[in-house]
Amino acid sequence: MKQLKQFAFIALFLGTSIFQGCKKDDRPEAEPELPQAERKGIYVLCEGLFNANNTSLSYFNYEDRSLITDKFASVNGRGLGDTGNDMKIYGSKMYIVVNVSSTLEIVNPHTGASIKKLDLKQNNVGRQPRYITFNSNKGYISNFDGTVAVLDTASMEIEQYIKVGRNPEQMAIANGKLYVANSGGLDYPNYGNTVSVIDLKTLQETKKITVGENPRGVVADQYGDVYVLSTGNYADVKSSMTTIDSKTDQVKTAVNFSGGSMVISGDYGYIPASGGKLKVFNVKTEQLEKENFITDNTKITSPYGLAVDELTGEVFVTDAKNYTTGGEVFCFDKEGKKKYSITVGINPNNVVFINK
C-alpha cells in the first residue's frame, strides 16, 4: 500500500534539494526509436486506488509497439488485488508486492501468467508488505507489521520473518548486509528514525542506525555507501539524506534533502523534485550534477516512480497526474530528451524490463 503517497506525495517534493560533500574514487504519441539491445518490452505496475482493488499491470511490447493496459487480468482472468506497491524481476520470475491485499504474486514475465500467489498474513491479519529485494536466491520483503520476510526463490516459500523496526519501507544490500528503513510512517506524528542492519549470513538484525525522521528510501551505490532518504514530519522537521558507510556502519554525512526516493545507475542517482524536475546526483563525487535531467521542457505533473534501463541508458519516469485517473510513463534518452510516452493505469509506480 502506498497510503502515505496518496496524501503526502505532493508535500514531499515542495522543498529544494540540497547536496554537499565530496567523494570516492497507451500507445506512443509518436513512433519511438526503440532500443537495439535484447529488450522485448516493459511492464508497468499501476497501484490503483487505496481500497479500490484495482491494481493493474500494463505491458508495452517493443517489437510491435502494442500496449496491453492490464496484462495480468487478461492472462489470468482475475486482478492483482489492492494497491500494488513494488515489482522486480529476479532470475526467471517477476515478483509483485500487493500491499493492502497482503500478497506476493509470482509471475512468468514472458507470458504474464501467475505461477504462485503467497499470502503474507499472521493469524489471518495482513502484514501489509511494501518492498522486495533479492540476494543469493533469497527474496527479502519488508512488511508494515515490523518484519522482513525471507523468501526462498526456488521453493517459493517464506522461510522466516525477521523482526525490525516500525513500518519498514525500502531496503538495500551492501557488504553482505540488508539495510531496512524503519519509517514509523503509520504512527503520525511519532515517526521512526532508524535503519535496521541485518546480517545476511545469520539473518539476524545486528544493530539500528539513527538517521533522519521518517526514513523511507534506501539505495546503495557501487562504492559501498548506503543513502537513506527521510521525509521528516511535513512540518518543522525537514526531509534529509543520510549517507552510511557500509564497511563501518557509521554515518558519513547528513544533509537537508527534499525527496523520498532515488534510483542509482552507475555513478548517477536520479531524484524526483518539485516542478516535475528530475535531479541528477553524482554518487562518486557526492555532488549535485544537474538540477534537471530533462532537457527538452517535457512537463511531468506528479513524478511517481523511476527506472533506468542499464542496457540503453534510457530513463523512465512515471506520472501519476491527479492520482485518481490514468497515469503516463515517459521514456527519455541519455541526453534527457523525450523519446515517447504511453498511457497506463492509475498511479503507475514501477517499470521493469523484459528481455527477449
From TrEMBL:
<dbReference type="Pfam" id="PF16819">
    <property type="entry name" value="DUF5074"/>
</dbReference>
<protein>
    <submittedName>
        <fullName>YVTN family beta-propeller protein</fullName>
    </submittedName>
</protein>
<dbReference type="InterPro" id="IPR015943">
    <property type="entry name" value="WD40/YVTN_repeat-like_dom_sf"/>
</dbReference>
<dbReference type="InterPro" id="IPR031815">
    <property type="entry name" value="DUF5074"/>
</dbReference>
<dbReference type="InterPro" id="IPR011964">
    <property type="entry name" value="YVTN_b-propeller_repeat"/>
</dbReference>
<dbReference type="InterPro" id="IPR051200">
    <property type="entry name" value="Host-pathogen_enzymatic-act"/>
</dbReference>
